[in-house]
Amino acid sequence: MSNETILIDDYVVNVNDLNKSFGSNHVLRGIDLHVQRGEVVCIIGPSGSGKSTLLRCINMLEQPTSGSVVVLGRELTHIDCDIDEARTKIGMVFQQFNLFPHMTALENIAVAQRKVLGRSKAEAEMKGLQLLARVGLTEKADAYPGQLSGGQQQRVAIARALAMDPDVMLFDEATSALDPELVGDVLNVMKTLAEDGMTMLVVTHEMGFASNVATRVVFMDGGVIVEQGPPSQVINAPQEDRTKSFLSRVLNH
Amino acid sequence: MAISKRKRAMYTRYAIYTLSILAIVVMALLVDWTRLGNAMFKWEIVKKQFPDILTSAAKNTVVFTILGFAGGLSFGLLFALMRLSSIRPYRWLAATYIEIFRGIPLLVTLLALGFGIPIATGWSWPNPYLQGAIPLSLVASAYMAETIRAGIEAVPKGQMEAARSLGMSYPRAMITIIIPQALRIIVPPLTNEFVLLIKDTSLISVLGVTAATKDLARFGRDGVNSSANATPLIVAGLVYLAMTLPLTQLVAYMERRAKAAGK
């Protein structure tokens, strides 16, 4: 592993001078982001600002063009890094849920525990049932994703990610595909998770969630971090014009 | 007074029904049924086809089909995965193979591999079943590779991402998450490939098989030669239908069900 990056124990995620281009489209332009254990970082910004790409670079679903990503002291961008193993410690929740449609809710939660962590079926299912209880869906253990509402599917997806005992959770617009009345249940699960001390990076359009739950808000625009700080500062008293203009469009309805 | 559009459509339909029925009646009256029956469906000859047509000829057709299908499916899956690989030479190799074997008639492939290779190398096929089934499966695998690839590509991209984000390796995600979903999509088209294979086995008879390895078509053709009557071919055709019709009905049923589930 590279020694050039300074590794600090308390930092779960270190993103250093990260750049990502898709062809001639320069999506991320030198991102530096350092997240400590227990932080809840909400990333906000207009669509196309690179929020989701940043999140997807942190677990290497997108290969960064340059710069480094260090998660839990491992440099994921290093050629010798075992990405599969590193990803077990990084939970991810997607906008479109991406549950496995050919498996029940419980099987969705158990499959990676068994195939990746090598847990026994009984062990994986016990853990699965505990997590289903935690997201309030014990009675849906044997339901297939097609039989669940969007909000229920997303809660199962959160349980599936938690089953790997991750040290950090990434939420990529987890509530954007939901009907408005189903958003609250999912946000409540995320809020409880935050209160339990999980380190979270949350790309979201839910300003209420960002105000109330985030320990830090990061505003991105045009592939750079424009402004960051506690929600009281970034959301209630933004310093930068771009932040002000974005917030006035999102908040004033 | 002009008649309405719907009335005109109704009268047109009646006219077409009437003409069709008339055409059938006229043909039935013109044909010499006794002569036709004697030449194409003579009962004594029909009876003579049994039981050999089932115990030997149909059995051989089934053996060729199953060998061809099993080989085609295994190689087809391999070539489909190669076509989807991130490694370029794999993609090129698979694409070349698929284009070559889809572009050459099965008959030519059968002759080239069944006769050409033994002539060129002095090596001979150890087993007459393999001599026919291997060229058949090579061609089948080219078609199946494309079917399987389309099935895998029809699985949403988020499925692979979700599996990888849980720490699964690419092969593990393919086996556990992607291929089971792709299989559901490709069962109807693969069943169609199976029906095509049943019929394509008839070409294997050009390889000059032994009495024990005659397939249905060859059995019928030899029957025509020995009896100077077309009946054996008609019976062979009916046995083919007995195998293919249930399968095509099954495909239709599966497609109806998939359509209903998709709503």
List strands and helices in order, with pairings.
The complex is a heterodimer of chains A (253) and B (263).
Chain A: E1 11-22, E2 25-36, E3 40-44, H1 51-58, E4 66-71, E5 74-75, H2 83-87, E6 90-93, H3 105-115, H4 121-134, H5 150-162, E7 168-172, H6 180-195, E8 199-203, H7 207-213, E9 216-221, E10 224-229, H8 231-234, H9 241-251
Helix pairs in contact in A: 3-4, 3-5, 4-5, 5-6
Chain B: H1 5-30, H2 33-40, H3 43-49, H4 52-83, H5 88-103, H6 106-121, H7 128-154, H8 157-165, H9 170-200, H10 216-227, H11 231-262
Helix pairs in contact in B: 4-5, 4-7, 4-9, 4-10, 5-7, 6-7, 7-9, 8-9, 9-11, 10-11
Walkthrough of the structure:
The complex is a heterodimer of chains A (253) and B (263). Chain A contains 9 helices and 10 strands. The longest helix of chain A is centred in the C-terminal third of the chain and has 16 residues, at 180-195. Helices cover 35% and strands 25% of the residues of chain A. Chain A is of the alpha/beta class and 253 residues long. The termini of chain A are far apart. In chain A, strand 9 (216-221) and strand 10 form a beta hairpin. Chain A has one domain: Rossmann fold (3-Layer(aba) Sandwich), CATH 3.40.50.300. In chain A, the strands form 2 sheets. A 6-stranded mixed β-sheet of chain A has the order 6-7-8-3-9-10, sandwiched between helices. With 263 residues, chain B is mainly α. Chain B has a single domain (35-262), classed as MetI-like (MetI-like fold, Orthogonal Bundle), CATH 1.10.3720. Chain B is built from 11 helices and no strands. Chain B has helices at 5-30, 33-40, 43-49, 52-83, 88-103, 106-121, 128-154, 157-165, 170-200, 216-227, 231-262. The model of chain B has no long low-confidence stretch (mean pLDDT 88). Chains A and B meet through helix 2, strand 6, helix 3 and helix 5 of A and helix 8 and helix 9 of B. Chain A: It is found in: Cell membrane. Chain A: Residues 13-247 form the ABC transporter domain. Chain A: Keywords: Amino-acid transport, ATP-binding, Cell membrane, Membrane, Nucleotide-binding, Transport. Chain A: Belongs to the ABC transporter superfamily. Chain A: Its main location: membrane.
